[in-house]
């Protein structure tokens, strides 16, 4: 790869990537959602279900609940003990499915080993599936429809790319990671935005070379700082979905930020990039689910 910037992706004047401030974009989106909710004759209802005390899940669920309440939603968290059986969790989901005041249901993952996540996800009413993980919603997205309930993290990434003005149509995009939660729906959304999409994973040959071809690089591998500066094409947009806790307690993304920033055209920090957008998009999905359900 030559050192020339990729078309449509020139680095910011003065060198160094433009930082895409996910906190600021998310705050603006949340404020807009709060305005729309305040104008409704009802409060959209969100129920987040947490099973057990996984420390990361405790933090994520609290963050989601607080954001939902701050935006004017009728939000509540249901906490079930770690030894809850699959049948008990399915009964809780069935009760929430039947409750007309509930517009959105989110069961926080991961679940304890005695519960099959797929069985629980499939039990959620697709119209209330604000995580967008139900096979019906995943299938809609895979068939090219972007008007349904879309997984929050990749949806948030698309908001960030559009907000930053990254050219999408015709761009070579690489998604590093193929999970149901991030990688696959991310690739579908980029494809729907007319990118030329490659999906890379742990069996990909010569990953650095694949990454260097990308004008848009979305990294969701869950490996602290694995993407180095010399994996990145000059001028590329680098979106770091990763969230990893280092042995010293610090949080870091999947991209070596300082190295990448010197080469990229745009970059998200981690934390402070994609994470806040995931929460904002959960609110957006809940509002959309409420409007669709209640006409
Ligand atoms: P996941 O289910 O573990 O998937 C990781 C993907 O990365 C897999 O497809 C895996 O490939 C691939 N991968 C792992 N190591 C690799 C390597 N050395 N080389 C190439 N590919 C590799 O993870 P996930 O749920 O998608 O999450 C990914 C990251 O995003 C995590 O750090 C997670 O904490 C973070 N995350 C952040 C948010 C947010 O809101 N900021 C939301 C969700 C997730 P194989 O399929 O071949 O195994």
Automatic annotation (TrEMBL):
It holds the Pfam family THF_DHG_CYH. It comes from the Bacteria. Residues 151-291 form the Tetrahydrofolate dehydrogenase/cyclohydrolase NAD(P)-binding domain. Gene3D superfamilies: Leucine Dehydrogenase, chain A, domain 1 (3.40.50.10860), NAD(P)-binding Rossmann-like Domain (3.40.50.720). Keywords: Amino-acid biosynthesis, Histidine biosynthesis, Hydrolase, Methionine biosynthesis, Multifunctional enzyme, NADP, One-carbon metabolism, Oxidoreductase, Purine biosynthesis. Homodimer. HAMAP family: THF_DHG_CYH. This is Bifunctional protein FolD.
């Amino acid at each position: 790869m030559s050192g020339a910037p990729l078309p449509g992706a020139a680095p910011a004047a003065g060198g160094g990537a433009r930082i895409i401030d996910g906190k600021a974009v998310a705050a603006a989106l949340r404020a807009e959602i709060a305005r729309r909710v305040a104008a409704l004759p009802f409060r959209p209802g969100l129920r987040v279900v947490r099973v057990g005390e996984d420390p990361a899940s405790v933090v994520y669920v609290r963050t989601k609940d607080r954001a939902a309440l701050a935006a004017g939603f009728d939000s509540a968290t249901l906490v079930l003990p770690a030894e809850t059986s699959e049948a008990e969790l399915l009964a809780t989901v069935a009760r929430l499915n039947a409750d007309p005041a509930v517009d959105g249901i989110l069961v926080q993952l991961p679940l304890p080993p005695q519960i099959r996540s797929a069985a629980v996800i499939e039990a959620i009413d697709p119209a209330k599936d604000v995580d967008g993980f139900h096979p019906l919603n995943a299938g809609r997205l895979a068939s090219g429809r972007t008007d349904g309930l879309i997984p929050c993290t990749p949806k948030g990434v698309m908001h960030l790319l559009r907000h930053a003005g990254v050219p999408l149509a015709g761009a070579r995009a690489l998604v590093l990671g193929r999970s149901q939660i991030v990688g696959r729906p991310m690739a579908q959304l980029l494809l729907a935005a007319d990118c030329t999409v490659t999906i890379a994973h742990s069996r990909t040959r010569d990953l650095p070379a694949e990454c260097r071809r990308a004008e848009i690089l979305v990294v969701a591998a869950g490996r602290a700082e694995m993407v180095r500066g010399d994996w990145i094409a000059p001028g590329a947009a680098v979106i770091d979905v990763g969230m990893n806790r280092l042995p010293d307690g610090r949080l870091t993304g999947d991209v070596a930020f300082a190295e990448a920033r010197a080469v990229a055209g745009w970059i998200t920090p981690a934390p402070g990039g994609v994470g806040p957008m995931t929460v904002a998009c959960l609110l957006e999905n809940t509002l959309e689910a409420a409007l669709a359900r209640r006409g």
